């Protein structure tokens, strides 16, 4: 099963200048040539099947009282209630970037091994939790850390297109 979750960097003012529909058109829906170009420019990031696992590694069991732990994966709120995708304003992007930079991402995944294994078991066609899964989640978290660092340095906002498939 291929499930994608996307992040798209935009200048902060674009959040207020675009309608929810226009914002939606700026965020990839699938991995394709458009996504490849955006990703090569550091403006988009996508993961397959790991978004909910990344979120759990960052937030499960109260290990991270910092509210910024919830921002990187599903954070932000739709710009308008009931419309659009979650958005992170530049100050939220900066907070998420700082949290990711200051976190030992590999250790967070190791600490949540049992929780992550249970979540993977909920997938119909996925292999069981393993070192390979753990390596994927850590790699995706590191890519997310680098993505947010670039967005924070540029003062950008981030729009999130949430995946479906792994229950949160």
From TrEMBL:
It comes from the Bacteria. It comes from Kitasatospora cathayae. This is DUF1877 family protein. InterPro entries: YfbM-like_sf. Gene3D superfamilies: YfbM-like super family.
């Amino acid at each position: 099963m291929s499930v994608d979750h996307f992040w798209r960097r935009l200048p902060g003012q674009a959040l207020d200048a675009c309608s929810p529909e226009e914002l939606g058109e700026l965020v990839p829906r699938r991995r394709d040539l458009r996504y490849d170009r955006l990703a090569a420019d550091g403006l988009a990031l996508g993961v397959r099947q790991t978004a909910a696992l990344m979120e759990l590694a960052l937030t499960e069991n109260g290990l991270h009282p910092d509210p910024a732990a919830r921002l990187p994966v599903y954070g932000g709120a739709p710009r308008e209630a009931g419309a659009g995708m979650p958005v992170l304003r530049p100050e939220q992007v900066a907070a998420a970037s700082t949290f990711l930079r200051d976190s030992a991402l590999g250790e967070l995944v190791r600490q949540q091994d049992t929780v992550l294994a249970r979540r993977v078991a909920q997938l119909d066609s996925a292999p069981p939790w393993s070192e390979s899964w753990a390596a994927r989640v850590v790699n995706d978290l590191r890519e997310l850390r680098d993505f947010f660092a670039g967005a924070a340095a540029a003062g950008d906002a981030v729009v999130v297109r949430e995946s479906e498939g792994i229950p949160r």
